[in-house]
Amino acid sequence: MSLLAGKIGVVFGVANKRSIAWAIAQAWQKAGATLAFTYQGERLKENVEELVGTFGPDTLLIPCDVTKDEDIDRVFSELRQKFGKLDLLLHSVAFAPKDALEGRFVNTSREAFRISHDVSAYSLVALARGAAPLMTNGGSIVAMTYYGAEKVIPHYNVMGVAKAALEASTRYLANDLGPSKIRVNCISAGPMNTLAARGIAGFLDMLKHYEAHAPLKRNVLPDELGATGTFLASDGAAAITGQVLYVDCGYQIMGM
Ligand code: NAD
Ligand code: 0WE
Question: Which atom of ligand 2 is closest in space to residue 100's alpha carbon?
Answer without folding.
Answer: 13
